Amino acid sequence: MSEFIIKDEDLSSLKGKVVVLTGGSSGIGLATVKLLLSLGASVVSGDINPPAASESTETPAFLFVKTNVASWDDLTALFKKTKQHFGRIDCVFANAGIGPRANYLALETDDQGNLKEPSHELMEVGLRGLINTTSLAVHYIKDQPEGGSIVLMGSSTGLQPLRAVDYSAAKHGVLGFGRGFARIADVAGLPIRINTLMPSWTTSNVLPDLEGLMRGISHVPQPALVVARAAAYLMADASRQGDVIYVADGKYKEIEKTVLFPAYETIKGEGNPTDDEVLKRLLELPAN
């Protein structure tokens, strides 16, 4: 795998940039907010809750907009207010997420004894909200000559079987969306880079008292700042496009070009076109 390091100087180009991120009041999102502010960027955070008063975000370069990413109206307001306040949007980090919610093995019943549909709350926040955030980011960035960057928050759980099925399914979806969207952005000639993060266990609020739970099983999650630095790096490095970055034990590895796509090339059969190549040919057929 292509392992790399992130130096402080790699992030210096973020000074003066305007960054929108979701889920910026805790965990990885909050760590990213504080890092970006320290680098001289302006940051707009969309979250259901504001950052705690104890967090050092009181600066004219920071704007909080109350946002439920499952609401299209909230997301459109987040981007509109950012453009009105700072005049532009350079980078977007679609980060908001919640922990597992659904139980597919034991359906609940309502007061009348009728079976209730399993919860789709995690899908609404972690996948649908991310897709909508990305679509709005493209709308606001695509007409800027210098373009911009979009970073998607996936998870290492999107690379493996996981017994928290709704969380795993959402993160598998993020991976597929990021890989496909990076391809279509290239085809469309958009000046926008799309990259996806796939971090392993990280200090966050996805599970209540995560650090305490981790201590109970003698497993140490990586600090949120480790992943925040990866998010900032993908915003700053103009050479990164269509990458999938696995983050574990404080180390960074690019796995799209070194693991995932090469694995597909190996199993599809020699001489066979990729599914995307077949789709390209279909789209190029003359209309009847």
From TrEMBL:
Transmembrane segments: none annotated. Keywords: NADP, Oxidoreductase. Pfam families: adh_short. It comes from the Eukaryota. InterPro entries: NAD(P)-bd_dom_sf (IPR036291), SDR_fam (IPR002347). One of its GO terms (molecular function) is oxidoreductase activity. Belongs to the short-chain dehydrogenases/reductases (SDR) family. This is Uncharacterized protein. It comes from Trichoderma asperellum (strain ATCC 204424 / CBS 433.97 / NBRC 101777).
